[in-house]
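Page header: ASSEMBLY MODEL / two components / 656 residues total.
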Amino acid sequence: MALLEVQNLTTTFRIGVGTVQAVRGISFHVNEGEFLGIVGESGSGKSVTMLSVMHLLPDYATITADSILFDGVEMTELGAKELRAMHGRDIGMVFQDPMTSLNPLFTVEQQLTEPLKIHLGMKKKEAREKALELLNEVGIPAPEERLRQYPHELSGGMRQRVMIAMALSCAPKMLIADEPTTALDVTIQAQILELLEALKQKSGASVVMITHDLGVIASMCSRIIVMYGGTICEEGSATDIFYDPRHPYTWGLLRSVPKISTGEHRKLIPIPGTPPDMLRPPEGCPFAPRCRHCMRICRTVPPPQTDLGDGHRVACHLMHPCAPKIDRE
Amino acid sequence: MTETAPLLSVRDLRMWFSAEKKDIFAPQAVLKAVDGVSFDIRRGETFGLVGESGCGKTTVGRTVVRLYKPREGRILFGGVDIANLSGKDLAPYRRRMQMIFQDPYASLDPRMTVESIIAEPLKLQHVPKLERIARVWELIDRVGLKRDHLNRYPHEFSGGQRQRIGIARALATRPEFIVCDEPISALDVSIQAQVINMLEEMQEEMHMAYLFISHDLSMVSHISHRVGVMYLGHLVEMADMAELYQHHLHPYTTALMSAVPIADPVKAATTKRIVLQGDVPTPIDPPSGCPFRTRCAYCTKRCSEALPEMKEVSPGHFLACHVMQNA
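Prediction written out in full:
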C-alpha cells in the first residue's frame, strides 16, 4: 500500500536571471515499509523533490502539485502550522552534512529532546530518559556524557548518529535520508548503512534514500527511482534497474562507475557532455543532447512513461513499438 | 616501465605540524600527519594512495612535490634528493612535477582568464610569449575545451570543465610526474569517468607517472598499477592492484575493501560487510604500537608495544602488521 502518493509535482525557483525548473511534473509513490532509493546527479532534482513534499523550501520556490497524499492526508491543503506538526513526527529527515544541520549553539540533549517535548508533550526528565535510550539505540557509547556535549565535540559519524536518533525520536512513518553518508569515510559509511538497515527492520518505517552513489543504493534499496533533469527517467525494482535497465541514461550511469576488479582493465565509458541547464531545460527529453540513440522526436517531444509491468516504468521514446530496437550496450 | 631505477623514491618521510594547544601553558602538541612513509614510483606508472580523511595521504602528495618541507626523510626525484632543496635549486624540479587539486572551484584564481591560468607555469619558466600561446592552444584542444573559452573566467565553467583547465595547467610544463589529489571527488558520476579516461589517455601519450590520491577505493583500483593503503600517517600495506585485491592481508585493507559499496544488488547481498567499530584516533595522540590496533579484531599484546615494520611478504607485496606477517 502506498504511504505517500505524489501526483504531478512541479517545483521552480525564481532567481535573478530567470526561473530554475528544478522538478518538472513528476509522479511517484512510496510504499509502506519499503526502502526506496532516488538516484541522480547534482541538479537532477532528487533532493528538491523530497524537500517539496515536506514544504521545506525557501520563499522564492514555487511548489505545485495535483496531489500529495501522505497516509490519507492531502498535504497540499494543509497550512504551515499543520505541516510543521507533521515534520519530525510523521516524517523524519536526515541530511547530508551533519555539521550544518545540527545547531552548534545547543547541546545534544537540548536538540534531541526538543522534538520529544514538542510533538509528544514529554516533560524534561522523561524526554532525557528517552534521549538516552535513543542514543543507545543508534550505537553511541557513553550516552550520558554525549548528551552534555556540543556538535563540534563529536566526530562526523557520531553527529550523523545523533541526526538519525533525532529523526527517529517520534517514531515517524517515513524517514527521508538525503545523502546520509556522502560526507563520511567508507568505514564510517558502512557503520551508518548498517545502522539504518537495522533500524528500518526494527521500526518498519518507510525509508527514502536520496543519493548519487549507485553502490549505496544497490546494497540497501528494494525499489529505485532514477532522476535526470527534473524528471523521472526510470523507475523499478533494484533487479530491474541493475540487471534490466531500459533507459540510456541508466545504462550510461551503470557503465561509468568502476568496479573493484581482479586486474583486467575495463575502460570506463563516460556519458559525453554535461547535465542540462535547468534555467533553460531542453524542450523534449532532458537527456536527448547527451544520448547516443537520440532520434528527431526526442528533441521536441517529452517522452511519455511506458509501463513494462511490475512497476518498471521508463520514460523514453525508444520504448515506442515503432522505435528502433536497441540492445543495451 | 622498463627502467629499473624509480622516478620517485620516498624514504622514511615524516611531516609533522604543530597542533592547536588546549591552553597557552600546555606543551606544544604535534600532529604527526605523515610518520615514516616509504614508497617508489616508476616512470609511466600510477601509484594509488588510499585511506580515510585525516590519514595523511594529501600531506604525502603535497610533501613529495615540495609544497611542504618535510621534517625528516628523503625524496629522491630522478636520483636527486630534493627534500632539503629550496629556491633556485628547486626550480628545475618544479617544472618536472605538477599537481592537480581536489576542488576545481578553489584551485583556479577567479580573477584570471583561462588563458593566463594555463600560461602561468610557462611564464614562471620564462617561456617566450609566442611559444606560450602555441602551447596553450595545443593544451586547450587536448583537454577537450574550445579556443574561444580562453578569454573566459573560471566561474563560467562547470566543475568538470574546471577540472580540465586544472589538468591543462598541470600539463603545461610537460611534467614527468603529477600528483592527482582527489581529482574527481568533487565531480558528478557521469563526469568522473570523462576525467579519469582523459588522465589515462594522457599517461599513455606522454608517459607520465601519477600519484593518485583518493578515498574511493574502486576508482583507485581502476586507475592504479600499484596501491598503498594509509592509516593514521603510516603505510600499512602496499602491492600491485591485482595482488592487493586478491591477497590483501592487513585487517584494515580487508575492512576497507569490504566497506566499498558494490553497484550490484546480488553481489552486495552475498558479500559480508566488515564493519569496523569506532572512529579513527586523532593523529595528535595516536595509539602506541600499531596505529590500527584500537579498531583491529586481531589485536594482540605485541601490537600495543611495537610499531610493525613494513616487510615484503611476497615479491612486491609489503605489509606492516605483526599478526598477518607471521600468519
